Amino acid sequence: MLLYHSGRYQRSAVKVFFAQTVFQSPELLLLCMPWLFEDLEELAKQVLSNKFGFFPKDTPIPSLLALFGMGLPLTQGAEWARHRHVVSPAFTMDKLKTMTKKMAACAQSMLEWWQDLATQAEGQREMEVSSQLQELTSDVISHTAFGSSYVEGKEVFQAQKELQTLAAESLLNVNIPGYNRYIPSRRNLHRWKLERRVRNTLMHIIQGRLDSKDSSYANDLLGLMMESRRSNTDQERKRQILSMNEIIDECKTFFFAGQETTSHLLTWTVLLLCTNQEWHERLREEVLRKCGTGITNADMLSKLKLVTMVLLEALRLYGPAVMMQRMAAKDLTLGNLVIPKDTRLAIPIAIIHRNKEVWGANADEFNPLRYKNGISKAVKHPNALLAFSIGPRACIGQNFAMLEAKTVIAMILQRFLLSLSPNYIHAPADMLTLQPQYGLPILLRALKV
Ligand code: HEM
């Protein structure tokens, strides 16, 4: 019927039909077929920057809920605003700058171990680096956000790794209402056990903070969330307070989001440096010129222009977030498309990042120089770099991630020469985040400093 209404409807209806046939989905996976849409970047911008709640997030599946809880990424509307209001102060640039010392200290202890391995090998040493970087970023988020350590949070990280695998598998499964949530199937029993493990460990960390003799909680993320419960007036309390369950859910979010994404950014950056040795050399030269061979600080890091350009290019080519999902809250038009209420929209970050029409003919190539005059000059659409998303729901941890990545890359380059092991197999896999399926084996050689 719609086909005969108007040209506009006709176009939408053909796409709905196509999406339903190809994906066998009752909803339209709109932006999944970019070749059907002109100006995909503009459509993505309109969806992501909408401030009226027309494009909320989808209802989360149980395995995603188990991973994040109802933390910041999954809450909506007023709930989301309250959570974001409480946690935002932990991510101001001034706060982040004070964290670089802790980031550098965590990196230092990993690199000392690398140094020992390289020395024992008396030359170069093969090492799988992605798991090392994952432990490092876990250690960093534990220290900076929770006043804890990787060892204390290990139970959480390990259980979350398994929950992540379950969530990635569930996204491909048929969703039978009720079954995935309530039936004691083998998978659900396993998920419930992991959830309990995460919760108990987090309660232990929080209890430690409650028992501490210090009258004011520490000035980190956990401290801020707990301090919010002590707000003075009733009005303030209503506006700012997070319940204990909400704090636990935010802890789940930050334990996961704080390490998983940044570790893959670091891994892909190391791969790109190994495969582009001239950039490896240029970056090392820049790091030694701006930071010397000592411990880096935030002011030094802000001068690392080439390192920043390489990280941006890694985020474009191998951004840890591959796709974002939204829903249409009501019947809407988007560009010249008519979108029925409850339509699911998938925003394909990875495809937008390699679109030759906006990034140029060399979109598939590693070319950090494209950012030499800033991101807006590198690309035809100002919002085509979506690695951290844009709009009100953009990543709250993006400056944290960039600071951490710069610290770690600078400290590695001060001390080591890296090259790719012949055992590396290039197989990027989307497991909620984009990661090298078989890890990243590299050859490590210590420099004389
Ligand atoms: C390279 C590193 C990172 C990448 C690529 C990344 C990417 C993203 C993206 C694309 C979103 C938007 C998701 C959506 O709207 O569907 C997001 C949201 C979020 N990220 Fe990150 N992220 C990174 C690091 C971090 C870190 C280090 C933290 C915490 C310390 C963090 C915490 C969050 C939170 C809490 C949200 C939800 C924000 C909201 O809805 O208000 N992320 N991130």
UniProtKB/TrEMBL annotation:
The keyword Membrane applies. This is Cytochrome P450 709B2-like isoform X1. One of its GO terms (cellular component) is membrane. Its main location: membrane. The gene is LOC120112175. Coiled coil: none annotated. It is found in: Membrane. GO terms for biological process: lipid metabolic process. The lineage of its organism: Eukaryota, Viridiplantae, Streptophyta, Embryophyta, Tracheophyta. Belongs to the cytochrome P450 family. Keywords: Heme, Iron, Membrane, Metal-binding, Monooxygenase, Oxidoreductase, Transmembrane, Transmembrane helix. GO terms for molecular function: heme binding; iron ion binding; monooxygenase activity; oxidoreductase activity, acting on paired donors, with incorporation or reduction of molecular oxygen. It comes from Phoenix dactylifera (Date palm). Its cofactor is heme. InterPro entries: Cyt_P450 (IPR001128), Cyt_P450_CS (IPR017972), Cyt_P450_E_grp-I (IPR002401), Cyt_P450_sf (IPR036396), Cytochrome_P450_Monooxygen (IPR050665). Heme binds at C395. The keyword Transcription regulation does not apply. Gene3D superfamilies: Cytochrome P450.
